[in-house]
């Protein structure tokens, strides 16, 4: 599987965290473990559409254009069976709420057709246009234009939510909700309510998952001498606590994760845009 990561254009950078293309030259049968993520993601599949498995439930999509909500479960998989040409547009944390004007809490750990959120004839026109060729740059341009259209009527995000997200990322997820609220001068009760509404998951869950992303990124870049070093450098009080927290999110110890071929996280998080 070939993975190509593309920086979003300046017109949509406020709303798009990263764009990734997943391609294969031939048909594949592959079960891909999905790493937890607090971001919603728009996907377009030019060929076969992967099935989405959460727990014991397998969902086959009804559309080539889909949106996946935040993923908090450690037991979610994409089931590939065919030739793959997929574009993943990972939205920034507040973008779902801004662009679609409601909380993503209803699609946490779910994938749904995009036409469930946008007027179906508009999505049909876009899907038909995307199906005209197999050029991922053309696809990205059309999807970018679609997001620019949504941007025209987007809701402005709450400033203190964006400020909190910036602090979390700056500290690589090594911060408590209490400390975060003290820095942005908001009560925990108000912050928890508004954050959950905007992002779709509680702030403590967001922090833990983002911390995981920064840890995986460090693993990708080989910026460590041992698992213990990663544990202490990322705010854990001992390696055993680090390993337990890591396993709760991924179902693997850090050592097992690094060696596993079950997922593509080590490639996907090689860059944190």
The major sheet is characterized as: 8 strands, antiparallel
Level of helix content? 40-55%
Query: What is the CA-atom radius of gyration, in angstroms?
Result: 19 Å
Beta strand count? 8
Q: Determine the structural class based on helices, strands and strand pairing.
A: alpha+beta
- Distance separating the two termini: 21 Å
For the record, the CATH class of the largest domain is: Mainly Beta
Query: Quick one: overall form?
Result: globular
CATH architecture of the largest domain: Sandwich
Give the uncertain stretches in residue-range form: none
Our count of helices gives 11
CATH topology of the largest domain: Jelly Rolls
Order of helices and strands: EEEEEEEHEHHHHHHHHHH
Q: What average pLDDT do the residues reach? A: 91
Strand content is 15-25%
Number of domains: 2
Defining traits:
Jelly Rolls, eight-stranded antiparallel sheet, alpha+beta, 273 residues, Arc Repressor Mutant, subunit A
Describe what you observe in this structure.
This protein has 11 helices and 8 strands. It has 273 residues and is α+β, with helices and mostly antiparallel strands. Strands 1, 2, 3, 4, 5, 6, 7 and 8 form an 8-stranded antiparallel β-sheet that branches. Strand 4 and strand 5 form a beta hairpin. The longest helix is centred in the C-terminal third of the chain and has 18 residues. It is globular and about 55 Å long. The two termini are 21 Å apart.
